[in-house]
Amino acid sequence: MLLIRRTVAAVLVCFCGRVCCGQSAPGAVAPDAVTSSLPDGPAAASNASLTGVVTDQEGGLLPGAHVEITAGGRTIVQLADGTGAFHAYGLPAGPYTVHAVASGFEAALESGTLEVAEQKELAPLALSATVATSVSVVATSHDIAVAQVAAEEKQRVLGVIPNFYVVYFKNPAPLTAQQKFHMAWRSTLDPVSFLGAGFGAGVQQATGGIDGWGYNRKGYAQRYGANFADGAISTFLGGAILPMLFHQDPRYYWQGTGTKMSRAKHAIASVVVSHGDDGRREFNYSSVLGNFASAGLSNLYYPAANRNGAGLTLRNAALGSAFGAFAAIMQEFVVPKLTPHRPASGPLPDPLHDN
């Protein structure tokens, strides 16, 4: 829970929109008022195109989906790119079919007719998850966890802000101690973490925060160091050290379905309830103790004028838990819509065939 706060805080500052537009040019129609006894000449060459995107039923992108476009007796085979998109150019006018399939999903078929030089943008091809029947090769829990972490490290809000500590998969595999520390390092050393610390230090300096330091370059450097230390300590305590000791998963489990009330309760409860490495729900020692430990350690490097011993520690721990609940609600309802490369929420990634 400690790990998703900086993501949500950054989202509250940043917002962008994207407007996608497409245009189509109708094919030319030759006038029929003139007749000729000569035989018809060859049809004009066509330069039509098709573009589209492959998703799951909930709108999650499916990069790497297998796509076949057939038009004029010619078949083009593609793999959807990192955004789930595919493109086919130089197509002849006439009927076309688009066949898309991905591992763990039913195939989807789209058909229609292209006009001469038409540039058609298809509606998203939404694939339905298949029901597993049997497998010939079984991946280990570690293999699945490796594939999950690789997918989670691509999750960035607005394509920029790290959003690694959120699980969109159903029934994820437990993380090893090594993977917990790996994710903590990746989050701490991400360029956005350094930028976030600098932004926070600038706001504090401009508003008079932490008045025990000066307001010159040295004061800014001290605020910068304290902000970065706060984030690093929070990440390693709540995301690696305590989860390793208590055998807990530091990630937020996105519910995604059900009523808004049930999803809100799930988000708020995540501050005090987590999943153990055995998959069972249990008291979130990692988050609760991490809040207190982070608040206590900050007394070691903040100026004496801004320390208040146990009182400050208790207040900061309470604020940390309150903001953790707010951050979880944002993760449940808002952040997924702003994370373009989040994996589909249905099946787990296939570590034996998808890499």
UniProtKB/TrEMBL annotation:
Protein origin, superkingdom: Bacteria
Signal peptide (residue range): 1-21
Cytoplasm among keywords: no
Pfam families, per the entry: CarboxypepD_reg
Annotated keywords: Signal
SUPFAM superfamilies to which the protein is assigned, alphabetical: Starch-binding domain-like (SSF49452)
One Gene Ontology MF term: carbohydrate binding
Protein name: Carboxypeptidase regulatory-like domain-containing protein
Organism: Terriglobus roseus (strain DSM 18391 / NRRL B-41598 / KBS 63)
